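Standup notes
- HV: blocked on the assembly model, inputs below
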Amino acid sequence: MDRTATVPLLAEAFRAHGYQGASLAVLSAATGLGKGSLYNFFPGGKEEMAAAVLAGIDSWFETNVFAPLRTAGSDGTAIDRMFDSVTDYFRSGERICLPGAFALGRERDVFADAVSGYFERWIAALADALEAQGIAAARARASATDVVAGIQGAIVVSRALSRPEAFVDSLARLRAAITA
Amino acid sequence: MDRTATVPLLAEAFRAHGYQGASLAVLSAATGLGKGSLYNFFPGGKEEMAAAVLAGIDSWFETNVFAPLRTAGSDGTAIDRMFDSVTDYFRSGERICLPGAFALGRERDVFADAVSGYFERWIAALADALEAQGIAAARARASATDVVAGIQGAIVVSRALSRPEAFVDSLARLRAAITA
DNA sequence: GTCTATAAAGCGATAGAC
DNA sequence: GTCTATCGCTTTATAGAC
C-alpha cells in the first residue's frame, strides 16, 4: 500500500464521519493501516490527510468537470455531461460534497484555499460554458453560482429527508432551467 | 439562569463549532455555566442539549416562517416575508442552518425526526403558499423544494467563498424566480 | 442551582522494535 | 514500511460539597 492508494479510502472515511468524527482509529480501520503507517505517509497527521483528500477531490473535478466546461462549445453537451458526472459522483445525494461540508464548519478556515478554490473554479468553469452559449458574462456567472449552490442544497435536502430521489429530481430541474 | 435561557447560547455554540466540535468545555464557556449546571438542566448531556436547540430552531421557524406561509393569500407577500426573515436569520450566510449542517453528518441519524421534520414542513408550507397563488400542487412542491435547497446551497457557497454578499444575491434571484 | 474534583475512556501524536 | 506500546491531553459524565 502506498500513500496515493490510501487517499480514496481516507476520503470515504471523512465523508462518512466528518473531519472531527474521523478519528485516527476510524482512519486506521478505513485504510487497514496502523496509526504508525499513516503517520509515515502523512507526518502532519489528520490535517495533512484531509488536505490530501481535498487535493484528490479537486484533481478529479478538474479533470472530469472543470476542464471540459472551460473548453465547451456552443451546444450544451458539456453542461449536460457535468450533470451526468455530478449525479454519479454524489451517488444520488448519498455521498456528500466534502468541500461543501467543510464550508459549514471550522474546517473552512483551516482548508480555506482548497475550499474556496474548488467552488470558485467550478463556478467560473460553468460560467465559461454558459458564455460559450452566448450568455452575457454577468448573467452567466449568476446562473453558474445558482446551479452550483442548487446542487449543494440538493445534497442537504435529499439527505435531510433521506430521499435520494429528491437529489436526482432537483438536478433534473436545474439542468432543464439552465439549458432552456 | 434557567434552562430555556441557555438554549439560544447553546445554539450559537453548536452553529460555530458543529456538533462534535462543541465540547462541554465550549458549551460551558458559551453559557457561563459549569458542567454540573448543564447536566442539571440536560441530564442527557450534549445530545439532549442539541435536541433542545433543534426544538428551539423549529419553534422559531414554525412561528415566523412556516405558519405565515400556510395561511398565505393569493398575493406574494407571505413569500416575500419569508425571504426577509430568512435573510435576517442566517445573517447573510454567516450563520449556518443547523438542521442543514446536521443533515450532512452522522447527526442526521441521531436527530432524524427533527432534521427531516424541519425541511419537510418548510417545503410543505412554502408549497401551500404557492398553491394559494394558483400554482398546481406538483409544480408548487417542486418549486418549494428548489427554493429551500437553493437557500441551503447559498449558505454553503457564500461561506466557502467567504462572500456574504453571494448569499444575499442568491436569495434575491430565488425570490425573483419564484415570484415571477 | 452551582460549583470543583475526579473518574474512565478516547483522542492525536510519538517512540522504537522488527 | 508496518506494527505495538505509550505519552500527555481532552473528552463525556458523575459525585459530592456548598
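- HV (later): unblocked. Chain B has a mean pLDDT of 97. Residues 1, 33-37, 40-41 of chain B lie near DNA strand C (CB under 10 Å from a C1').
- Next: hand off to the docking folks.
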